[in-house]
Write a structure and sequence with these properties.
Elements: E1 4-11, E2 15-16, H1 28-43, E3 52-56, H2 68-75, E4 84-87, H3 93-107, E5 112-120, H4 138-143, H5 151-161, H6 166-185, H7 211-214, H8 224-229, E6 246-256, H9 257-262, E7 269-278, H10 288-299, E8 308-311, H11 316-326, H12 349-364, E9 368-375, E10 379-387
Parallel strand pairs: 3-4, 3-5, 8-9
Antiparallel strand pairs: 1-6, 1-7, 2-6, 5-6, 7-10, 9-10
Helix pairs in contact: 1-2, 3-12, 5-11, 10-11
Amino acid sequence: MNNAVIVDAVRTPLAKGKPGGAYAEIHPVDLHAHALRAIVDRTGIDPAAIDDVISGAVGQVGEQSGNTARWALLAAGYPESVPGVTVDRQCGSSQQALHFAAQGVIAGAYDVAVASGVESMSRIPIGSQFAGKDFFGPQVQARYEGRLVPQGISAELIARKWGLSRAELDEYSALSHERAARAWKDGLLDSQVAFVNELRTDETIRPGTTADVLAGLRPAFYSEEWAAAYPELDWRITAGNSSPVNDGAAAVLVTSEDAAARLGLRPRARVHSFAVVGDDPVLMLTGIIPATRKVLERAGLTLADIDAFEVNEAFASVVLAWQKETGADLDKVNVNGGAISIGHPLGASGARLATSLVNVLEQRGGRYGLQVMCEAGGLANATIIERV
């Protein structure tokens, strides 16, 4: 069996995903191409050696439709002989792309693959792909008796179930901004970023943000309709303790050890283990708890063996509920900031987390890193990488 190794990982800075954001005038294919071009430029690999480009995108409509991976790799200047495919596991799409790339290498189907992702939320607003339609269907609606809710309500339900106060959520969110701002100031993110136009940092980081400032924000998901449906909620989720909407792209080069040696490439990490789970689609965002347990069991490791965690900060309640259940040390979690500050360009976030994790392990001299991503529909991906 082949080992799948990560040779390099790169991302763009993340921009505000709305009109006026730094990438709002950039077509998502061209934004994606920037990351694909960067992974080739940084490693010196001949793109003709790439067996497949597997990419994540959530809003697969309009400018991000039609198998955007194929058009992005051509925009990046890759030979026409290089294929590409676009996958959708919601927010975990590019983490799933990494799983598929690693699985292909382990199975011997690929020698070299790129796992990548893109999301332009300024040009393809969140939910555009639904076109106002009921994507659940009547049988699913009947099974869950009309209890299926938007993610913001799921985040509220999680906060209540795990007894997370508004103050705890805001304190964690302020910490995310503090860590991200410090990481940029200390130069810890420069080596993992391929800069685009004039943007030289992640656009949604708010240096100096405090829990007191965040405490002044109003609940983001309150409505009379939802308050009537869930009278037990006291509405703790705000824009400040949720991830923003963003534009961005990321790419990870995955090869076999033999291919890396043959091509003169130096591996940085090994894709050690991976898992995907399904969980309650009403709470929706709690799959990261069983996914963490499952991937650790598959790896033959314990939580204490993990030196760094990247847990996607879709909402502060998601990370803190996960921490309560697993007992993970928050000093090892999202140490250079997470999605609440850095941003969450849906289809690119899994590859962004992998990029962050490789770099944190190197910066801290750690061996094992675990990344885990909550996803719409009650899904989650978990991945363990090992620094080499």
